[in-house]
Specification:
single chain; 324 residues; alpha+beta; Cyclophilin; 6-stranded antiparallel β-sheet; 21 strands; 14% helix
């Protein structure tokens, strides 16, 4: 049966990858969990497009692609605010957009974050690898042949818009896409909550850290006063996970992200709580943050509150969809 929609890649953007649900239960085999760097924005984009939260969508890093939609499609853009034009007309994020056949969707740079997500109704059709459609760039598998989008790539979706749009239609309603119920004042460092690690290093809390341009989906490198682990004895490689804060010999912490390796030999001086991973994913080079001590009970509460908020947003989107 032919695909419901065909999307041609005119220009790929800086780093655009297919990301769906993480690969769960395989870290003991050395397989990274992967998935969207910002799972909150990825889920919202999919819900707005009418998909399950974990459907395959495009993750856009810093600067986006140019795509041509050969068939009508419903899409949604969430995450970092990004310049986007459909046939030259500026389009907003955080709401459904109905594109008519032949639409060229042009993305510019991200303006206030690092990653934006484009979800298309029906999700992207890619062959799952180890149970997930997500791209593992280091492993070279999943998504589109384990690599970023390239000019000339064609994407297919698994759904069809019930009433194909003959002109661009932008929903009048929108959602609050902030991952957390609070925001730091403009110009102030972001606050990231940190659980204690197996190792300790004086000075990790309170210090303002700056993100390094060498950061990627594997880890967010930080710059600031060099730290030293309290225990400097030689150690064996130990398990790590997304959120683990490692301390290399140069004293500059690395916060592991979704493509984190499964083991590492550096001291583990803390662990960022799951609810704050979306904030880390949106930090551009030069962004500033500080760590705030957190307890396991507080981490569980924050995660539960975030999940409940996502559920409430999903119900609101469903109600809006029935009303339009």
């Amino acid at each position: 049966m032919p695909s419901a929609a065909s999307i041609a890649t005119i220009a790929p953007g800086l780093l655009t990858t297919v990301q769906g649900a993480p690969r769960c239960g395989l870290r003991h085999l050395g397989v990274a969990s992967g998935g969207p760097a910002d799972p909150w924005a990825h889920a919202l984009a999919n819900l707005l497009a009418g998909n399950p939260a974990g459907s395959a969508a495009l993750e856009i890093t810093l600067s986006g692609p140019t795509l041509r939609f050969e068939r009508a499609a419903r899409v949604a853009i969430c995450g970092a605010a990004i310049e986007a034009r459909a046939n030259g007309v500026p389009v907003p994020g955080n709401r459904p957009l109905d594109l008519p056949p032949g639409t060229t969707l042009v993305f510019g740079p991200c303006m206030d974050g690092a990653r934006s997500y484009l979800a298309i109704a029906g999700g992207l059709e890619v062959a799952p690898v180890l149970g997930s459609a997500s791209t593992d760039l280091r492993g070279g598998f999943g998504g589109l042949e384990g690599r970023a989008l390239q000019a000339g790539d064609r994407l297919a979706t698994g759904g069809r818009v019930e009433s194909p749009a003959r002109r661009l239609q932008v929903a009048r309603w929108w959602i609050d896409a902030s991952p957390l119920p609070y925001a730091h004042p403009p110009g102030e460092p972001s606050t990231i909550r940190l659980l204690p690690g197996a190792d300790t290093a004086a000075g990790v809390h309170g210090q303002v850290w700056q993100t390094d341009a060498r950061s990627n989906r594997q880890g967010l490198r930080l710059q600031g006063p060099a730290l030293q682990a309290m225990d400097r004895s030689e150690r064996i490689s130990e398990p790590v996970a997304p959120g683990t804060v490692q301390l290399p010999p140069d004293g500059q912490p690395i916060v592991l992200l979704v493509d984190a390796q499964t083991h590492g030999g550096y001291p583990r001086i803390g662990h960022v709580i799951r609810a704050d991973i979306p904030l880390l994913a949106q930090m551009r080079p030069g962004a500033r943050l500080r760590f705030l001590p957190c307890t396991p009970a507080q981490a569980c509460t924050a995660n539960a509150e975030q999940r409940q908020r996502l559920h409430r947003i999903a119900l609101a989107i469903e109600a809006k969809g029935r009303a339009t």
